[in-house]
Amino acid sequence: MTNNATTRAEKFVVRFPCGMRAEVSEAARFSHRSMNAEIIARLQHSLGNWPEALPQGTSAVPEGNEEAYLLERFRRLSPAKQQALLALLD
C-alpha cells in the first residue's frame, strides 16, 4: 500500500485469543506476506464464500429443546456468571 492508500484505509483493532497471533505470524511467513496481508487475504476468501460456507438447515439446538438447552448451559456457569446473566436479563 502506498502512503496515501494507507491513510485512506479503514483501521480496526482486533484482539486475538492467546496463541492466535503466533499462528497468524507463522501463516504469514509461510505465505510470504505481512500479517496484515495474511489476515486480509483470509477475510476476503471467507467473505467471498460467505453464504456457501455456512451450514444450511441445521440448528445448534434442536427445535423444541431450547429451554432445556439454556437451563443446562446456565447450570454450568459459575455462580458469579449466573448472577451477571440474571442481572442482564432484568
From TrEMBL:
SUPFAM superfamilies: Ribbon-helix-helix. One of its GO terms (biological process) is regulation of DNA-templated transcription. GO terms for molecular function: DNA binding. Residues 9-47 form the Arc-like DNA binding domain. It comes from the Bacteria. This is Alginate biosynthesis transcriptional activator. It comes from Alcanivorax nanhaiticus.
